[in-house]
C-alpha cells in the first residue's frame, strides 16, 4: 500500500470479511458455473477460498503481482502465472481490495476473459472490477484481519483513547 499517508482507517474483522465474501458470492451466483477461481496473492487468497467454497468451485489458481504505488519506481510484474486459467475464460478472479488499479490492470491484461471481483473498491480502481461489496474512499487505509491482532484497550475512564478504527 506504499508509504502514503492515509487519513482514515477501516478495520475489517474476520466476521466482517466472511460476511462480505459471502455477499460477493451471492452477487456472483447468476454467473455460474465457473471453471475455477484465481486468487490475486496474497490478499485475495482468503476471500477467494470462501467464495470458491460458496460457489462450489474446486479449481483454485493464483496470480502473484509485485507492484509499486508510485509507478515511476518500476512497472508491476507478474511473478507467478495463473497457468490453469488460460486467458481467463470461465474463471473468476478475486482480490481483497482494488486500490490504485495498478495490479488489477495487469491481471486484466493477463486474464482478459475472466470475471473480476473484489470485496472492497477505491474510486481509482473501481472501474477495473466487475463486482465489489463496499466502496471506500481513496484516502482510507483498510486494515485486514491478517494484518492486525486483537489488542487490549483500557476503558476511557482509565485513560483509554477513543480510536476511530471501526469499519
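Q: What amino acid sequence fits the structure above?
A:
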Amino acid at each position: 500500500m506504499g508509504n502514503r499517508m492515509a487519513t482514515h482507517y477501516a478495520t475489517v474483522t474476520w466476521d466482517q470479511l466472511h460476511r462480505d465474501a459471502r455477499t460477493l458470492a451471492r452477487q456472483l451466483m447468476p454467473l455460474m458455473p465457473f471453471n475455477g477461481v484465481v486468487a490475486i496473492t496474497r490478499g485475495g487468497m482468503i476471500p477467494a477460498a470462501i467464495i470458491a467454497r460458496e460457489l462450489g468451485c474446486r479449481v483454485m489458481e493464483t496470480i502473484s503481482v509485485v507492484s509499486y504505488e508510485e509507478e515511476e519506481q518500476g512497472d508491476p510484474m507478474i511473478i507467478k502465472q495463473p497457468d490453469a486459467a488460460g486467458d481467463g475464460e470461465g474463471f473468476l478472479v478475486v482480490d481483497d481490495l482494488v486500490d490504485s488499479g495498478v495490479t488489477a490492470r495487469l491481471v486484466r491484461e493477463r486474464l482478459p476473459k475472466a470475471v473480476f471481483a473484489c470485496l472492497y473498491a477505491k474510486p481509482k480502481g473501481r472501474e477495473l472490477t466487475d463486482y465489489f461489496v463496499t466502496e471506500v474512499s481513496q484516502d482510507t487505509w483498510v486494515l485486514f484481519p491478517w494484518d492486525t491482532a486483537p489488542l487490549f484497550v483500557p476503558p476511557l475512564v482509565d485513560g483509554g483513547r477513543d480510536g476511530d478504527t471501526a469499519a
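Q: And what stands out in the fold?
A: Strands lie at 8-11, 36-41, 60-66, 77-80, 91-98, 115-121, 131-135, 140-143.
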